[in-house]
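INFO batch 0412 | record 1 of 1 | parsing
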Amino acid sequence: MVDHAPPTAPGSAAPAETYVVGVDYGTLSGRAVVVRVSDGAELGTGVHEYSHAVVDTTLPGTGERLPADWALQVPSDYVDVLKKAVPEALAAAGVDPASVVGIGTDFTACTMVPTTADGTPLNELEQFAGHPHAYVKLWRHHAAQGQADRINELAAERGESWLPRYGGLISSEWEFAKGLQLLEEDPEVYAATEHWVEAADWIVWQLSGRYVRNACTAGYKGIYQDGEYPSREFLGALNPDFADFAETKVVHEIGALGDAAGTLTAEAAGWTGLPEGIAVAVGNVDAHVTAPAAKATQPGQMVAIMGTSTCHVMNGDKLAEVPGMCGVVDGGIVDGLYGYEAGQSGVGDIFAWYVKNQVPQSAVDAAAAAGKSVHQHLTDVAYEQPVGAHGLVALDWHSGNRSVLVDHELSGVIVGQTLATSPADGYRALLEATAFGTRRIVQAFDESGVPVTEFIAAGGLLKNKHLMQTYSDVLRLPISTITSEQGPALGSAIHAAVAAGAYADIRAAAEAMGSVERATYTPDPANADAYDALYAEYLLLHDWFGRGGNDVMHRLRAMRREATRASSAPAPGSDGDGRGGADSVEQTAADASIEASA
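INFO prediction complete | emitting tokens
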């Protein structure tokens, strides 16, 4: 790798190299990377898988069965990443820990931790160990949909000025919907919650001893716009006991991205092996830190972080209302520009679900005989035929729709199956469906006057070259790719370098430390034409099922909830330890990167 460190004068000593650590907290694991400040070279990595994974069937230690659409985590798993992945990365890098000047972190969002005043998670208190609401609510906890619906209805009725900043709809994944669910379903835990903390900020609190809210999650997930949260009057109209939620549970100092939240405590230094007193960057979201890692700091550069789900982030030089966007925040990615966010709730998760639950043993055996993963085998077979030959079109809503419909009651569909439909046919239809979902998001931005001028892909799914080419063909756009395999962790390291004072701002650090290959994939005109026809069918299904033409998905979801409540039997696939069944698939979907690479 070329060293971009500044040249030194003849006869002078070369400046000592310094390093930063970036830690990326995913759905099932945390990854640490040691990065050289001068040029962004990644020198060592470490990974730690959470011992409790995703708690979506039974509560740890109690065996209590969780209702449908719940997804919890155990916060001690996050601290274990600092104790294990960071020292592992340092050892792999072979650098002197004394030369590390900062640490930065990013997290899935919206992932919420109810804590006491000193930051102790409530699930760690004996009296609340058996309360599901005392645990972390992971980003994909969708059981607050009813509360989200009420927030949206009331905000629209009152004409709340912040609602258009979120595309007209607040998600069940977000801070206020989850907080209202906590109040209404477990008032005891709600009363004991002194801080309702984004995990992105909680882990920075553990590192620095200071609780600082980051501007990113406050704006995108916490309905913080123009210096204010939703009013006391609005919250009280939802529930009188919710009126003071913002001022008593949420309000706190907000830190700008790239600033230092504080310095590393002695305790955290002992966990990580890093020097006490180094800079700890303000927290951030995994998707948003990836933009600087991909050198995407200018308007129109959309970055798609593709793993279990996909988050789309982009800077713009003006404020616009984009239907179904997850939010627009002034300085949400870099200072001086509006940061936009959209996303798809299921991508790699869907592929992994299909392989785990829908593929016959014959396909598994064929993959083994060929020395391939099932993902790679299905991809290779599927792409032997031309576009449209499978006769299928699918909706990518197996985990609901985040953008542009913002409805987690929606579900997946494959149309066109016959007795001749093969496992590879269905797999390719799902790959294509996620590309169509992305095109619908890009289309929404273009139509709203925020044009997408460059599409940059990051994340584990980059390894599937057929999938990337499909996205280029469907979008009719060249696709650039981040060259780092640890994009979010690199982005966090970039923020750590700024927090440590090594660069003036995120743009300067991104230019020196980021990495991207431009136009790695370009559209094939014939395939793009064929995909246009399939996309037209996708749009018909999208609007029929998603915009009120047929409400069957909502009715089926309601039936499922009722049947779940009426039954006390363990969920299929549950092993009784609180770990997920078919939903807990990040190892195959993202960490293993859908191994297809043909």
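INFO post-check: The two ends are 26 Å apart (CA to CA).
INFO record closed
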